[in-house]
């Protein structure tokens, strides 16, 4: 009896091809997240491209297809930190009514973001590497443009309503961020008292807002 051997099925290998635009974006985001953790845990110098690739589970070819250098990746990490802190709106400002509750709400939200563990880690990293990346330190300061614009609009509206005296609204916004958010949160970071209960943080912000507005409100000419 003739036995006809069945021919094995031919395995057709599917070409992997290039990742989709969405997949490519996910890979890039993943690299940034991994690098953020590595930079924060060690330092810029100690974090090598080989280490980043190994921890991210990618090849060096994949890394260099997205970033020209470790410095370029570091810049992407800092930009993401800036966007997380400043570009996400802390809520729509109240266009009517007293200015104080709106400023307190924004001050609390921005302070909470600045005191998050991820934000603190990146802030320390920027401070330690600023001598190498002065342009990044400058960009970090300039990254508050979005928040300043939002707050400047609130001050402009309050001026029109006569709640505060007429002044440069953008200058007021810059001073507000420094005196109510940036200065106090950096003091807490330096002293290690970042795990502040929200109610206590709110009271601190409210006191700072009151002091700030005392210098902006029209003087009582009848006194």
TrEMBL record:
Q: Does the keyword Glycosyltransferase apply?
A: no
> Which keywords has UniProt assigned to this entry?
DNA-binding, Transcription, Transcription regulation
Q: Does the keyword Transcription regulation apply?
A: yes
> Which stretches are transmembrane?
none
Q: What is this protein called?
A: AcrR family transcriptional regulator
Q: Which organism does this record belong to? A: Rhodopseudomonas rhenobacensis
- Stretches for region Disordered: 1-23
Q: Which InterPro entries match?
A: Homeodomain-like_sf, HTH-type_TetR-like_transc_reg, HTH_TetR, Tet_transcr_reg_TetR-rel_C_sf, TetR_C_Proteobacteria
Give start and end of each HTH tetR-type domain: 25-85
| Extent of Basic residues compositional bias | 7-18
Entry GO MF terms: DNA-binding transcription factor activity; transcription cis-regulatory region binding
**Where is the organism placed in the taxonomic lineage, from the top?**
Bacteria, Pseudomonadati, Pseudomonadota, Alphaproteobacteria, Hyphomicrobiales
Which positions make up the DNA-binding region?
48-67
Classify the source by domain of life: Bacteria
